[in-house]
Amino acid sequence: MVEEQTDRVQPIRGRTRCVKWKSKRDDNPAPVKIDLPSSLRRIVGENAQQFITEISYLVKQYCPINVDNWKQMDAHIKMKLMQKVKEKYVLPNENHVNMAIQKELMKRFRTWRFGLRRDYYKKYRTDKERIENCPPNVDIEQWKWLVLEYWGSQKFRHMSENNSKNRSKQRMMSCVGTKSIARTLHEMVIAIFNI
Question: Which domain of life is it from (predicted)?
Fold first, then answer.
């Protein structure tokens, strides 16, 4: 008997478990309103952190880690993620929204891989140790590709060195702690003008 293939993926939960947010959603499953002003093109407002946490979870659930970058991610996966976001949230009906959501999904994908590199790759000295210590809930074949073919490549090392040099020259970061400058600005405007 042949088992049917489905789009359902086993949920993966890491340090950020969305527990409080999940209980809130269980009490009120209606889509949540998200603020995404065209002037900022970033998710801001009361539900911004929950949105970021939840889409981080979706990215870990649906995205493979064995692709060079977000541009090379399968279009079907990107469409599935957008569909999930639109089911869970009430988004403004404006032109910039889809691009801003895609940008946030890309950022969450990069953040996830950055965390894997920081917590699992750099912790060990050899590729053999790195592969033996595959992160939980990460496919071992994808992990091997990431360790050997991506992070272990000369191309990645060169890119990483250039990015480190460029980052050291930045005078203003795009976030303060875990909160983006756009969110901080939005909160300041609301506090000042009591909107």
Answer: Eukaryota
Distance CA 89, CA 104 (A): 14
In a domain, 12, yes or no: no
The residue type found at 181 is: I
Q: Which residues of the chain have a pLDDT value below 70? A: 1-22, 25, 174-177, 195
- pLDDT attached to residue 185: 78
Please tell me the pTM assigned to this model. Answer: 0.79
In a domain, 4, yes or no: no
- Which is nearest to 67 in space by CA: 131, 11, 150? 150
Which of 156, 115, 160 has the alpha carbon at shortest distance from 138?
115
Residue 64: give the domain boundaries.
19-193
Q: How far apart are CA 104 and CA 180, in angstroms?
A: 12
Q: Are residues 112 and 12 in contact, defined by beta-carbon separation less than 8 angstroms?
A: no
**Looking at the domain assignment, is residue 41 inside a domain?**
yes
Calpha distance 116→123 (Å, rounded): 10
Q: What is the pLDDT of residues 125-150, one digit of tens each?
A: 999 999 999 999 899 999 999 999 99
What pLDDT score does 2 carry? 46
How many distinct structural domains can be found in the chain? 1
